[in-house]
Amino acid sequence: MVTRRQILLGTAGVAAATAGGVALLREQSTKATAASEGTFEITKTPEEWRKLLTPQEYAVLRDADTEARWTSPLNKEKRKGTFACAGCELPLFKSETKFESGTGWPSFYEPIDGNIGKAKDFSWGMFRDEVHCRRCGGHLGHVFNDGPKPTGLRYCINGVALKFIPA
Any catalytic annotation for residue 156? Predict the structure, then answer.
């Protein structure tokens, strides 16, 4: 027979374990999505970045925020050209690799070789691969394994993190 005391102690134990797990995930997500804290070719203070970027660009590139779905004009961009980092203008994706994923964010199946960095992201209780600009560390978005051929990858990128340069 289970006593009321055993039920209360068991409930308290589950609550403590859950709280500890949430705190650990928060700590890991802060470390995982803060790609801008690494060592990069281009480094600036937060104040210097704020002078160069719009508030929305800063939120995404420097604080790993996410822009609202379907808000980027780059979703409809069909011209030939290059998508570069909005923070440092490093070329990141060729227009030929862009595709319509139906997610509400610009999507690409392949980055320009060597220009994207990756980090583990444990935010929102999920395990994902965060992608960032290898030159300035700006947060771009995430990469998933549900893209088209030839790579099977979907780089789901915040449009505000990109600058389109027509060919």
Answer: yes
Instruction: Tell me if 166 sits within 8 A of 78, measured CB to CB.
Output: no
Q: Considering the entire predicted model, what is its pTM?
A: 0.78
pLDDT digits (tens, 9 = 90+) for 135-165: 999 999 999 999 999 999 999 999 999 999 9
77-to-22, 33, 147, 162 alpha-carbon distances in Å: 39, 27, 19, 12
- For the chain, count helices (H), then strands (E): 3, 9
Integer Cα distance of 91 and 81 in angstroms: 10
Length of the chain: 167
Identity at 8, one-letter amino acid code: L
In the sheet that 139-144 helps form, which strands lie side by side, from edge to edge? Answer: 98-99, 107-108, 154-157, 139-144, 128-133, 116-121
What value does the CA radius of gyration of the chain take, rounded to a whole number of Å? 20
**Which residue in 85, 133, 136, 156 is the catalytic one?**
156
